[in-house]
Structures are given as C-alpha cells and as structure tokens.
C-alpha cells in the first residue's frame, strides 16, 4: 500500500460529476490513502449530477490544510459553487505555494482560476472552459492528462484511468 501515509482532500458540493469524484477516491483508497470529503457542511449529503450521493466527512472550517498531502477538485457543476468559498480558494492557494499535489478534472479548472494560480501553467480541462483557462494565463492543451509540476489536470471521465495513475504515482513520490 504505497499511499498508506498520505492524506488527500476531495472537495464536494452539489452537482459534482459522479465519476470524477468517486473514481479518484476509490483509486486512492485502493492504494491506502486516506481521502476526506470536505464540503461547506460536515456530514451533509451532496448529490452528484447523475444522482449518486456522497456525504462530507468534514466542513471547510473543520480541517487544517497543512495536514494534507494533496487536494482533488472534481468536475461537474460543483466547481462553480466551490470557487465562491474563500476557504476553498485558500486551500488551493496553500497547496500551490507548498508545491503539494493539486488534481483537477473537467470543469474543476474554474476553482483554480478563481484561486489565481494558473498564470504560466500548462493545463488541460474540458474544452468547454478552454477560453477561461487561457484567459487566466494558462497554456491549454488537449491531452488526457497534463502535468505541470505539482498541478495535474485532466479533461473528462474517459481520461480517469490515465489521470489517476499519474496522480497516484506523483503522490507516492512526495
């Protein structure tokens, strides 16, 4: 279990993309990582775009970001909600400054845009937010997974196996 000592935050809000939340969580847990679902409220049930529920373990105010090795931002419509919370933006900025892993897929790039950490970065996302990403100063590429230092980005659910292999490998190296 190469990730047994790793702690990861998975951010959550309503209308997350079901596969983009659950596949990464299960993949990292298979390798022994502790993955905490963190949302506005602790022990709250959030519903994904396709009806799959997920219950948050903690609220934003319950955690200490320094205790974590990585953060995952799922796609769907949740990122548009998540980026409105100053705590979420602070989490992402901290992880960026500390050079800890930040994983984002699909529309999750909106959170990184609002955290203002994309200037000069090479990223991918769903093509639907390509203009948003480039307007934030990033170089957008159409690849299944893109790595720029500690930032790992991916486009959409069919890319999840490649995205999570790279993410887990990089987490194991930290």
From TrEMBL:
<feature type="domain" description="DJ-1/PfpI">
    <location>
        <begin position="6"/>
        <end position="167"/>
    </location>
</feature>
<dbReference type="GO" id="GO:0008233">
    <property type="term" value="F:peptidase activity"/>
</dbReference>
<keyword id="KW-0378">Hydrolase</keyword>
<comment type="similarity">
    <text>Belongs to the peptidase C56 family.</text>
</comment>
<dbReference type="InterPro" id="IPR029062">
    <property type="entry name" value="Class_I_gatase-like"/>
</dbReference>
<dbReference type="InterPro" id="IPR006286">
    <property type="entry name" value="C56_PfpI-like"/>
</dbReference>
<keyword id="KW-0645">Protease</keyword>
<protein>
    <submittedName>
        <fullName>Protease I</fullName>
    </submittedName>
</protein>
<dbReference type="GO" id="GO:0006508">
    <property type="term" value="P:proteolysis"/>
</dbReference>
<dbReference type="InterPro" id="IPR002818">
    <property type="entry name" value="DJ-1/PfpI"/>
</dbReference>
<dbReference type="Pfam" id="PF01965">
    <property type="entry name" value="DJ-1_PfpI"/>
</dbReference>
């Amino acid at each position: 279990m190469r990730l047994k000592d790793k702690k990861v935050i998975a951010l959550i809000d309503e209308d997350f993309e079901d596969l983009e939340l659950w596949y990464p969580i299960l993949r990292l847990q298979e390798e022994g990582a502790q993955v905490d679902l963190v949302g506005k409220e602790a022990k709250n049930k959030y519903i994904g775009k396709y009806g799959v529920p997920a219950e948050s373990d903690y609220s934003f105010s319950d955690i200490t970001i320094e205790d974590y090795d990585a953060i995952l931002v799922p796609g769907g419509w949740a990122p548009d909600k998540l980026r409105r919370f100053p705590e979420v933006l602070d989490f992402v900025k901290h992880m960026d400054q500390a050079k800890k892993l930040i994983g984002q897929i699909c529309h999750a790039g909106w959170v990184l845009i609002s955290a203002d950490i994309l200037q000069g970065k090479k990223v991918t996302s769903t093509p639907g937010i390509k203009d948003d990403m480039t307007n934030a100063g990033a170089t957008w590429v159409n690849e299944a997974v893109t790595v720029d230092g500690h930032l790992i980005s991916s486009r959409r659910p069919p890319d999840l196996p490649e995205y999570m292999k790279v993410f887990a490998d990089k987490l194991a190296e930290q």
